[in-house]
Amino acid sequence: MNNSITHNILRFVFLVLIQIAIFNNINFLGYINPYPYVLFIVLFPIGDNRALLLFTSFLLGLTVDMFCNSGGMHAASCVTIAYIRPWILQSIFGLAYEYNAVKVVKAGFGQRLLFITILVFTHHLLLFLLESFNFSDIIYILKKTLFSGAFTVLLCLIFITLFSVKRR
Amino acid sequence: MQQIVNFFIKYRNFLLYVLLLFISLVFTIQSHSYHRSKFVNSANFLSGGIYSGLDNITAYFDLKVHNAQLVEENNRLRTKLLNTRDSISQKIDTATFHKRFRFITAKTINNNYTFKDNFLTLRAGSKDGLKQDLGVITSKGIVGIVDRTSTNYATVISILNSNSQINAKLKKSNHFGILVWRGGDPNIVDLIDVQSKAPVQKGDTIVTGGKSTIFPEGIGIGTIKSFELDPSENFYSIKVELFNDMTNIGYVYVIENLDREEIQTLEQQTADEQ
User: Fold this and answer.
1) Name one GO cellular component term (chain B) (predicted).
2) By CA distance, what is B111's nearest residue in A?
3) Which of B8, B17, B24 is the mutation pick for testing A, counting most A CBs within 10 A?
């Protein structure tokens, strides 16, 4: 249990740091930036306290906001995906989720990809909507969501593969 | 009573979600107005410190470009100095000479240009004399306006920000307009509301107008890339290519207009009397 808390705190700090140091400065093709810090919400222990997940997600978003000078956009999107996460888990993993037997890292590739994709794209869509605050840019927002989202999903998958070395 | 408590227990996650969402939306809406959230900005001890540390590493990558810029500026100033007649013999008594502008140098430690509202963070704060609404320029042209300051750091509203509106004019004819940015290319800004009588030509220089108390008159902005009349044919909308490379800003100068308070008091008095 204690181990899990330390793990998550370390993950929080690590993801925020690489986000602001590296991934905010990618600017691929001028405007595409990935936001792999949402991996924290993806990997947050399942079946644990939901209120805790909501609160830490808010904190995560607000920390990134502070560095991006973006008010509360990241916080709002993070809290939202943290809130809808249980339902997505339920629809993807079904019965296994109800028995608390799901681990995102150990799930099958298809399920894992689907889960991450839904979370990431919801997050990005909300984020870019709040950023532009204007429905007339919807094409631009969707385009940005698609490209940045794909980039983020790819990075998340890479991170999971890299950091889930089988501890035996 | 029991039912109310039960309600709160049953929907506690939903209520927490709504509360947190509400807080973040308040911050977001605040961030879309000109002077922004006091709490969530990068001019604080933590983010300023981390950006400062990161900059110590990344500064080396841009060192060559920044050196070249400095040499270029020195070259320009030296040419100006040596070509001014009697520049040496004309003595200025600095004790009585009325100084209108004060310059403060600062290093940029964080710079955005991909969002709709972009900000820079400077390693200089209220300790160095920075305060809200001071102009920020580089040797080539304007960068933005100081927004929030802490003791050691400050955030700058970049000209690449949808809230930024800067008074600018054509260098050769004094016709003025408003400089805005509508997102997209970080090297192109729009100059709107220029009178249709203005002699606009491709390649002409745009400089700051003297109408605001933030920037001195005549600081370079960019050159005209293309222009078109708006549908009513009263005003030009001009695309301006910036002199500055907004994606690579190193050392900047913060300008303080020392007459600002006097001008503002005067304007206020005039407005009150009417």
Assistant:
1) plasma membrane
2) A25
3) B24
- Give the pLDDT score at B97: 64
Sign of CA dihedral B12, A47, A64, B125: positive
Write out residues in chain B with pLDDT < 50, as ranges.
none
Nearest to A76 among B25, B30, B112 (CB): B25
Is B19 in the A-facing interface, judged by CB distances under 8 Å?
Answer: no
Residue-by-residue DSSP string for A39-85: HHHHHSPTTS-HHHHHHHHHHHHHHHHHHHT-TTHHHHHHHHHHHHH
How many beta-carbon pairs under 8 angstroms link A with B?
Answer: 113
% of chain A residues with pLDDT over 90: 13
Q: Is B272 exposed, middle or buried (0-12, 13-18, 19+ CB in 10 A)?
A: exposed
pLDDT digits (tens, 9 = 90+) for B261-272: 888 888 888 888
* Domain covering B166-242: architecture: Beta Barrel (2.40)
What are the backbone dihedrals phi and psi of residue A28, each rounded to the nearest 5 degrees, phi first?
Answer: -65, 130
In angstroms, the CA B270 to CA B274 distance is 7
Interface check for B29 against chain A (CB to CB < 8 A): the answer is: yes
B45-84+92-162+249-257 and B166-242 share one CATH topology?
yes
Give residue B92's pLDDT. Answer: 61
For chain B, domain boundaries: 45-84+92-162+249-257, 166-242
Given B14, B40, B110, which is nearest A72 (Cβ)? Answer: B40
Q: What value does the mean pLDDT take over residues A58-76?
A: 87
CB-nearest partner of A69 from B26, B41, B50: B41
Domain boundaries, chain A: 2-162
Q: Which residues partner with B222 through β-bridges?
A: B206, B242
Q: How far apart are CA B21 and CA B144, in angstroms?
A: 31
Which one of A69, A85, A127 makes the best mutation probe of the B interface by having the most chain B beta carbons within 10 Å? A69
A99 pLDDT above the threshold of 70: no
Examine the pLDDT at A168 and tell me if it is beyond 50: no
Contact B223, B213 (CB under 8 A): no
Tell me if the domain spanning B45-84+92-162+249-257 has CATH number 2.60.40.10.
Answer: no
